Recover the amino acids of this structure.
């Protein structure tokens, strides 16, 4: 029977066990998608109590290596492949309406679950961007999407300003018609709409981590797109996209200004 030896007096026992389990995961002894031994077996392997095993697994869960599913056991998370993306800044138009810069142009995406439209208390960040009071009841559209065949890649929440619903009531319906809610807003006198993107990195909320299947220790990229009225210059809606930080890397090609020309 394997017994785990003492690595160092200053290292807590659960850290030693976490280090050993991490090594076994990284070397492929415990493969992605498979379960770790149950608590009873782990306590016997490492000759320790359940509370120490629980603490060790919590370390691995925070690192994003495993998911602790209660009665479903502890599962090794699939290794994520970072998507190298080069987003542009040009908005196009096709038969379906406006097309915004994509993570990978032309790629087919799928929706996880059903898109939702409901009245919800608006959180602080979108409330700030939209110019409404935090916690106010605001119309929200939500979609959880990913490239076809991949796990959830992003949460997209579109929050509509109450004035937008007054000016264009159809934007609050399930089916907003050809061109989507943006066409309805432009037809109501707000066109041509302009857009502004704001990006920041933060930790996910409990709900976001659950929907994306990530631990709360994994940072996310938040991309907020404001839809600005040509009439008032005020935001009509804000779409907040949340993407796990371990799923992508953004690439930008730098260009020389005339002052940096070569030969000099």
């Amino acid at each position: 029977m394997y017994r785990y030896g003492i690595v160092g007096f200053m290292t807590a026992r659960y850290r030693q066990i976490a280090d050993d389990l991490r090594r076994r995961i990284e070397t492929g002894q415990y493969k992605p998608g498979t379960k770790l031994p149950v608590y009873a077996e782990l306590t016997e392997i490492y000759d320790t109590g359940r509370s120490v095993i629980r603490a060790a697994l919590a370390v691995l869960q925070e690192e994003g290596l495993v998911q602790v599913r209660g009665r479903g056991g502890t599962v090794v998370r699939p290794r994520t492949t970072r998507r190298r993306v080069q987003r542009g800044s040009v908005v196009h138009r096709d038969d379906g309406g406006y097309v915004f810069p994509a993570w990978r142009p032309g790629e087919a995406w799928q929706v996880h679950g059903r898109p939702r439209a409901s009245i919800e208390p608006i959180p602080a960040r979108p409330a700030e961007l939209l110019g409404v009071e935090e916690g106010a009841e605001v119309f929200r559209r939500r979609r959880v999407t990913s490239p076809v065949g991949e796990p959830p890649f992003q949460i997209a929440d579109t929050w509509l300003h109450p004035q937008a619903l007054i000016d264009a009531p159809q934007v609050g319906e399930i089916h907003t018609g050809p061109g989507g809610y943006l066409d309805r807003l432009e037809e109501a006198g707000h066109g041509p709409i302009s857009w502004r993107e704001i990006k920041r990195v933060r930790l996910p909320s409990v709900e976001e981590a659950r929907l994306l299947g990530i631990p709360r220790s994994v940072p996310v990229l938040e991309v907020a797109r404001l839809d600005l009225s040509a009439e008032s210059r005020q935001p009509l809606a804000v779409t907040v996209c949340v993407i796990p930080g371990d799923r992508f890397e953004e690439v930008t090609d730098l260009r020389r200004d005339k002052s940096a020309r070569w030969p000099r």
In short: DSSP finds seven helices and twelve strands in the chain. Confidence is low (pLDDT under 50) at residues 4-10. The longest helix spans residues 13-26. The first strand starts at residue 66 and ends at 68.
